[in-house]
Amino acid sequence: MSVLRGIHQRLGSGRAAGLLVLPIVFGLAMLFGCVPYSDHPLSAPGQESLDNRLFGTWYSKDEKESVFIHFGFNAKSGLLNVVMVDMRSDGELEYSELNGHNTGIDGASYLSLKWAKPEEEDADGYLFVKYVVDEKGLGICIVELDAVEKGIASGEIKGEITKRRLSSSVRIKDTSENLRAFVKKHDRELFPEMQYLSKLQAQRTR
After folding, report:
1. Predicted confidence band at 10 (pLDDT cuts at 50, 70, 90)?
2. Parent domain of 191
3. d(Cα 3, Cα 204) in Å, to the nearest integer?
4. What is the pLDDT of residues 111-163, one digit of tens each?
5. Is the residue at 206 inside a domain?
6. Cys-Cys with 113: which of 100, 144, 178, 181 at CB 3.0–4.6 Å?
């Protein structure tokens, strides 16, 4: 996972200005202690219909990388499939896949996602992402680690915080019902900034 590890090195302690959106959003989720994982989703799979506004291919591109993220569904499992392909200018290709489902909370939309490929022991559990689909494209924001830490430390939600030398590892242990209430109350702190992707429009052939 050289590209994803490289993101962490370039990111340092500040924001990753100038980097592609998708490796930032989803690549960070593969790095130890960068985002919190939850034992439970925001809602049970199948409680809501899959959001077909997500279906299709979204992309981000610069002179060094082209990243495509494909949203669809698995008819057998009924889950949302998220497949990301990262192509670097030197031809190196990286592929990752997540499965999950969407949840609506007070008019806003969220995803509860699990890594399918590659499998990572430290990334077991649900990753929470807020999203919007509007005239600007697909906006994505991964859950903020510090905001979840504060919620656990204050006792608002149940979880475990493991301090490391350079980072913290956070595990959310609370129920889906309590998590939805927590997200509704602290949405701005948990999901502070959307990053947008464009939708790929297939050209018609004669």
Report:
1. very low
2. 2-199
3. 33
4. 999 988 866 555 689 999 999 999 999 999 999 999 999 999 999 999 999 88
5. no
6. 100
| Residue 204, in any domain of the structure | no
Inter-residue contact 93 to 85 (CB < 8 Å): yes
pLDDT in tens, 151-172: 999 999 999 998 877 666 899 9
What is the value of pTM for the model shown? 0.82
- Residue 205 inside a domain? The answer is no
Question: For 111-143, b where at least 16 C-beta lie within 10 A, e where not — what string?
Answer: bbbbbeeeeeeebebbbbbbbeeeeebbbbbbb
- Are 113 and 100 within 8 A, CB to CB? yes
| CATH number of the domain that residue 166 is part of | 2.40.128
Please tell me the distance from the alpha carbon of residue 202 to that of residue 43, in angstroms, as a whole number: 33
